[in-house]
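User: Fold this, then the next.

Assistant: Folding the first:
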Amino acid sequence: MSYKNLIAQALISIFVFVVGHYIKQIIDNKKASSRKRKAILSSLIAETECLLHLIQTRLEAAKKVKNDVKAFVTIPITGDYFRIFDSVAADLSVLNSNKLAIKAIQTYMETKGLFDDVKWFSTNAFELKRGLVLVNGNVTPLINGYIESQIIYYDEIVNDRAPKACQRLEELIQDLKAENK
């Protein structure tokens, strides 16, 4: 075998090795990206299902509250219920559908807004209870008006905002599951 043939074979071998290695990297990256996408989707599905269940169970209880005590109800929201979404929000670009990423962001922001409103309502209900204790049960017109506004706000959360959030979460769960197939 001549010197030129050995060099040619060596160059071809190096070229095949480099191209093969490059192709393997592409395949590995696609597999890793697919695993990451599946993990993100599965995590979002689980968290969204938990959020939906949480809202539905609290909503069922809230609908049983009598009108005269609505202003004093505190609905406990104490945890970080959006931890998974917050940790994967920057990676939503791995989803195949940009519309789904946008829908997920919008649904989560609306749900976070609902939770913020419920926290605000509960804080006001607590302060109202404390204020009523301070005036020994004598309801002044100012407090009575405040109670009425609390009841209106309560009804808006229970009869409008929370059911809409449940519907949006249900739709998002279905879309995430369809993407995860």
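Now the next one, as you asked:
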Amino acid sequence: MRLYDKIKHNLTTDPKIIPFCHPALSRYITISKGQYHLVGGAAGSGKSAWVDYHYIQQTIDWYRNEGKDSGYKLHIVLRSLERNQENRRYKWVASELYKRHGILIDYLAMANKRKFSHKLDKEVEEAIQDAANAVDEYLEYVDVFDGSDNPTGIWKQMYELALSKGTLYIYEPDERGEYVLY
């Protein structure tokens, strides 16, 4: 297909994207195959929380509500270098608890690392159960790998994951000395 024909086709076909959760930002940020997004900021500025909410939680919410009908199959690989899987799940429960029920409980209290200063009544307990069940469902879509590792270790882990999902083809050049850039 010639370039012009490809452009015309692309402009008249719905894109294969996961929409970003904020309509105003969705004009500029989408999630699609082959894209790389870098989120930067000062230490403690909320980068991990922002990524968790916008790229994990909101993507899963979109998939549950609309995405299953799109023909996509959602699989998120989260390589968590700074927060272990258990604490990340506590944070997700705290977020779901607030989003679903308007109840604000510090994830550190859930992790028994800070004193919970309120009464745990039946209503709050049921809300926590609901939020925890929602987070348990996350794990249908998200593989969380935690702990720091060297770049080679991460590469090997991702390579093995990719092989478990498909076939690796190795290009053997026809001519000696041929260089091919991918």
